[in-house]
């Protein structure tokens, strides 16, 4: 017999980092946390639903990682330092192997980012994983979507599009052979938390790329009351993506989702500074366009303006 | 056509109270919130799953209320003032009437408690509602489960058991006629937030009664390294419950769930003080027993020790 309390004790009681600012963690009606006086609180939540965000049978270790990573990515886009997570799991049944794998995947990433699991909820239901993540940012220093100015450079971290192709492999639409790296990009997204911290003093606006670079740049531009010109030839395409997708690689980079890279706007004069810091942060950032005054996104490729219809993944597009 | 962004704008953008401490609300990657320097942050989350916590076809207005109320109750048990909520909705399809009703139920309760909806998530999936609620409590003043001492009085607010019988009506196991008030107690639980604030200076330990008074008192006692003696004859039974359940009324009061009342321990010398304040808070509190040194819960009824097997609702009891 396993009760909810026993399951929590077995799998979740000591997940993630131990933090001295957790005054009271799992086991009471709510968690008690100490927020430093000079910091603002940053709160986000994201959900993974079986059949929507992952396939039945997906590796639980990867799900534990992803459920946290997609929230870490939101905090990265705000320039925040992650601190405390709550985990709400709807499970169809008790499956010890699944729980062990999930907890291990969550734990490894939480420890890597010094995140404590401070509470949560376990209930029976169709498999769904909701993580709430709280972080901290010095007062007034958070990155937002709406700070971009006309003329600012638009940049993206890493190599967008890889995860979208990895997802196609996971969906059985492509052979896995030769695409192991792209699958890993989908299964184990790396939230750009360190980069987000560096961007606090460089970027004018920032967003995490979860629904596709084109759609998310469009959001950043609109929030900043701007439009944008993007140079398709400047998109940073990975060798693995080019090998797997050939001439369609740029379409994955623009339209694919699940990247969890950062897209940001930056005054031109910060370009040299970014180059130095991005190397330090371990992730390449590439200039791919500029904010402009006219609304909408214009794509340039080989000297011509081109059309691109994919507008990003939306859970309620009908 | 409705996108996730359009649905959020239509139904959720201005839910709840407007608060000046929301530096950035819905519409960015995360919310930015100002925590006063003398306060601790209190975080909780709770989920309602269709078929588990409510029946298919349940009134959406009631669900919007309940999803927030069950979280407010957790903060009440900590003696915290609620402040900011995140809402994660898994919806099988877009149903405007449902969304309108749900949003209205959530909104009314949020405004009543000065809670701002600061963010959230909408995705397709089997109907499931997760609310994360953040509140504030003066540093070091939070109520906990583990502060009870041998000899402390045990008390409960309101009239436990009503909601459990209301649930039986909702499940079709009892006729609704004559039980409208009990159904209302299930559909629209009142979180005891004001009482929780008053208890900060009176109670030694506190817990919210969600899984049944017996089970939750047992948790409070165990967390406080105590056992308890409960006087069944002292249970505060509502007229409506006695009318509907007759001789079994006390069993509902002890074993039913979904009460969202507060159970608490209190030094004997605070009894007069409680009587005065509880009247001010608008909810009656009743002494129903004492913490004792010996582990376990002993039930007294009509001068005898009796047995009670129901140990509370557990989502993973198998």
Low-confidence stretches of chain A: none
With helices defined by DSSP (H or I, 4 residues minimum), what is the helix count of chain A?
A: 10
The proportion of residues in beta strands of chain A is 25-35%
- Using only CA atoms, what is the Rg of chain A? 20 Å
Mean pLDDT of chain A: 93
Percent helix of chain A: 25-40%
The spatial strand order of the largest sheet of chain A comes to: 8-10-7-11-9-12-13
* Greatest interface: A-B, 73 and 73 residues
Q: Oligomer, anyone? A: homodimer
Span of the ends, CA to CA of chain A: 44 Å
So what's the overall shape of chain A? Answer: globular
Characterise this structure.
Two copies of one chain form a homodimer. Chain A is an alpha+beta fold and 318 residues long. Chain A is globular. The model of chain A has no long low-confidence stretch (mean pLDDT 93). In chain A, the strands form three sheets. Chain A has a seven-stranded mixed beta sheet with strand order 8-10-7-11-9-12-13, with helices on both faces. The first copy, chain A, has a four-stranded mixed beta sheet with strand order 3-6-4-5. Chain A has a two-stranded antiparallel ribbon with strand order 1-2. Helix content of chain A is 33%, strand content 27%. The longest helix of chain A is centred in the first third of the chain and has 19 residues, at 60-78. In chain A, helix 2 runs parallel beside helix 6 (193-199) and helix 6 (193-199) packs antiparallel against helix 10. The termini of chain A are far apart. Chain A is built from ten helices and 13 strands. At the A-B interface, helix 1, strand 2, strand 3, helix 2 and strand 4 of A face helix 1, strand 2, strand 3, helix 2 and strand 4 of B. Strand 2 of chain A pairs antiparallel with strand 3 of chain B, so a sheet runs across the interface.
């Amino acid at each position: 017999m396993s009760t909810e309390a026993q399951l929590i004790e077995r799998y979740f009681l000591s997940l993630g980092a131990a933090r001295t600012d957790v005054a009271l963690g799992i086991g009471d009606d709510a968690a008690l946390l100490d927020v430093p006086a000079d910091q603002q609180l940053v709160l986000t939540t994201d959900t993974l639903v079986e059949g929507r965000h992952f396939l039945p049978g997906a590796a639980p270790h990867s799900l534990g990682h992803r459920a946290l990573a997609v929230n870490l990515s939101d905090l990265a886009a705000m320039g925040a330092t992650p601190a405390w997570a709550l985990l709400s799991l709807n499970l169809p049944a008790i499956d010890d192997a699944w729980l062990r794998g999930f907890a291990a995947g969550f734990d490894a990433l939480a420890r890597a980012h010094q995140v404590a699991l401070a509470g949560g909820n376990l209930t029976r239901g169709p498999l769904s994983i909701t993580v709430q993540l709280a972080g901290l940012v010095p007062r007034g220093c958070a990155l937002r979507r709406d700070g971009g100015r006309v003329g600012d450079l638009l940049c993206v971290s890493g190599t967008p599009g890889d995860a979208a192709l990895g997802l196609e492999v996971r969906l059985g639409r492509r052979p896995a052979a030769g695409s192991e790296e792209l699958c890993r990009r989908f299964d184990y997204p790396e939230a750009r938390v360190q980069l987000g911290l560096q961007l606090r003093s460089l970027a004018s606006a920032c967003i995490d790329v979860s629904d596709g670079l084109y759609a998310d740049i469009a959001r950043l531009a609109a929030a900043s009351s701007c439009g944008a010109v993007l140079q398709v030839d400047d998109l940073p395409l990975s060798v693995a993506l080019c090998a797997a997708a050939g001439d369609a690689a740029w379409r994955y980079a623009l339209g694919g989702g699940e990247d969890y890279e950062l897209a940001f706007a930056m005054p031109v004069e910060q370009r040299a500074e970014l180059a130095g810091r991005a190397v330090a942060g371990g992730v390449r950032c590439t200039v791919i366009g500029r904010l402009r005054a006219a609304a909408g996104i214009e794509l340039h490729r080989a000297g011509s303006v081109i059309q691109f219809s994919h507008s990003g993944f939306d859970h309620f597009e009908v």
